[in-house]
Write a structure and sequence with these properties.
single chain, about 260 residues, alpha/beta, two-stranded antiparallel ribbon, 9 strands
Length: about 260
């Protein structure tokens, strides 16, 4: 069945404006999608800066990266959401936030997230003990070449599981994206697929069929690993198609390969 939803697109590389939102909406409509979920990362917003001390301290390059990302108040985004809810769009458009999850952020996030009018909330793991795993400029040097791949994979999946158990999220972002550089995990990932699918079913959380790794990192899987997808279907775990688009042209990208 052809996907009709893109559950994860970012405004990150443009302004928080209705006109920019329309660029994404129009791209989705042109591809025959009926529902678009728009979000942005917590690292864009000043109010969430206290969460990132571990990332900032891990490496000077990460601090420089983070400083460039801090460009808005969350109130700017809330005002945009309120303005868009008064607009008429050709498809359904909903708004949320992609939250950079780590266990130690739980209390802070529970307090911060509760006060905003989200339609959905995506929990995603973007770092392993403060080290970003997907930065072509330095992630291999500070993480992949220093730690055993099995340890990295296990840390990643443990954090994804804890996000699902937190009760904060309706959706998990790119649940197996740690595979992007195609390092051998050193163990059978079926145990992780079983664990996450059971948690998704139990807590009514959607797992993303996220195509970002396929078109940004040339990973052979269009979305979830085939065994992960089969496990989700067998265990009745909900999934949602997601492009992880950071530009309008990537909305619905590679959905035809799912």
């Amino acid at each position: 069945m052809k996907p009709d939803t893109d559950g994860h697109v970012h405004l990150e590389n443009g302004p928080l404006s209705v006109d920019y939102v329309r660029e994404f909406v129009n791209a989705a409509a042109q591809k025959g999608l009926k529902h678009l979920q728009i979000l942005d990362h917590t690292h864009r917003f000043y109010e969430f800066a206290p969460m990132y001390e571990d990332v900032i301290q891990a490496d000077p390059r990460q601090k420089a990266w983070f400083d460039k990302k801090q460009i808005n108040s969350i109130q700017d985004y809330i005002q945009l959401i309120e303005a868009c809810r008064k607009e008429e769009f050709p498809i359904e458009v909903t708004f949320g936030l992609e939250v950079c999850w780590a266990d130690f952020r739980r209390e802070f996030l529970a307090e911060q997230l509760a006060v905003y009018p989200w339609d959905f909330l995506v929990g995603s793991v973007h770092s392993i003990q403060g080290r970003l795993y997907d930065m072509d400029g330095w992630s291999r040097e500070i993480l992949w070449e220093k730690e055993p791949a099995e340890w990295i994979y296990r840390q990643y999946y443990d954090q994804v599981a804890s996000a699902m158990e937190s009760g904060l999220f309706t959706q998990i972002g790119h649940p197996d994206v740690i595979k992007m550089y195609q390092y051998d995990p050193g163990y059978d990932l079926q145990e992780e697929y079983d664990r996450l699918c059971e948690l998704a079913r139990k807590h009514h959380i959607l797992l993303e069929e996220n195509t970002g790794a396929s078109y940004r990192y040339k990973h052979p899987d269009a979305g979830l690993a085939p065994a992960f997808r089969e496990t989700a279907a067998r265990m009745d775990a909900g999934t949602i198609t997601a492009s992880d688009a950071h530009y309008p042209k990537h909305v619905g990208m590679n959905f035809d390969l799912l």
